[in-house]
Amino acid sequence: MAAVKNIAIIGASGLLGSRIATALVIAGYSVTAVQRKVSQKPIPAGLRVVKTDLGDETGLTQIFDGQDVVISAVGIPSFETEKVWIDAAIAASVKRIIPSEFTTNMESPLAIQLPVATEKVKVRQYLTSKISNTSAPTTWTSLNNGAFLDMTIKFGALGPNPITKQAIFHNGGDNEIGPSTLADIADAIVRILDPANFADTTNQAVYIHSAAVTERKLTAMMSKILDIDFGSVEDGRIPDVNVDELMEKAKGQLEAGDMTGMLNYYYVMMYEEGYGGKDFKKLSWNERLGIRVMNDDELERAVRGFLSFISA
Fold it and tell me: Measured by CB atoms within 10 angstroms of the end CB, which terminus of the chain is less buried, N or C?
């Protein structure tokens, strides 16, 4: 497989996209940030910036000419927008497309039916169909990594909340899931594009995780780090939410036009049986890509770092 040199990234100004772009620059790639004309968001150092209309397939095809890889790191991908740049990337004969999947488990037949996955499912299906029906040399890889550990720890989405000093469990709090740090996600992209892994990751959904955690484990860990008594389910201070009931609540919220209910589907994806959240070890590419899983001591140090803003 020919070496990858030039990479275009959509969403390089975002939380994850900026990490990925910076990691690629450090790894020695020539990285171009493709940004909307009206955007004023800062782009990481070391990137070439091209402003364009993301709905202009012809213009995007010209931008992608000479690029080896196109990556989408947009936070909430829309099929209608993603479709345009996918067509442009294939028309430009790029070697690899990496769509914006990341937090979503796409291998579970149940998970892909959730409203939170709808647009990403459309993108994956379109991408794979388009590539299989073209003579272009383009291939695809998706990266899926569970929850963003850095952010979910800070805002209490995985059990304990350092701001409210309260915790919430889902389906007992003992369900083990595999979140990933932003640094590991960016590193995984770099490793996927490495010549040693490029062929093996061709037309593959790649799954990684930085640690194996439960809500109870993280609550005990945060209690130790911040000296917070979160209480327990038994004493009534920690609610234990039934995820099946949460899903029914989310359906009602969406039917009423309340889009905040969409976030509850992530708990379904993580903790409900059959939705893939518990399958992270079975799906893992960590060993093949050379990405270590943190032990408990390393996880505690990482959590301390994520929570440093508390004492600032």
Answer: C
Amino acid at 144: N
Kindly compute the dihedral angle of the four CA atoms of residues 52, 53, 59, 64, in this order, to the nearest 10 degrees.
Answer: 60
Are residues 44 and 30 in contact, defined by beta-carbon separation less than 8 angstroms?
Answer: no
* Fold adopted by 149-178+211-278+290-310: UDP-galactose 4-epimerase; domain 1 (3.90.25)
> Which residues of the chain form CATH 3.40.50.720?
6-144+181-207
Q: Is the pTM of this model over 0.85?
A: yes
Tabulate helix, strand, coil % of the chain (nearest 5): 45, 15, 40
242 CA to centre of own chain = 25
**Would the pLDDT of 194 be above 50?**
yes
Class of domain 6-144+181-207: alpha beta
| Structure-block tokens of residue 68 | 């080896």
| Cβ neighbours of residue 103 closer than 8 Å, sequence gap 6 or more | 144, 145, 146, 147, 148, 266
Q: What is the pLDDT of residues 265-287, one digit of tens each?
A: 999 999 998 998 889 999 999 99
Enter the tokens of residue 104.
Answer: 């979503």
Q: Summarize pLDDT for 129-150 with one digit per residue, the tens.
A: 999 988 889 999 999 999 999 9
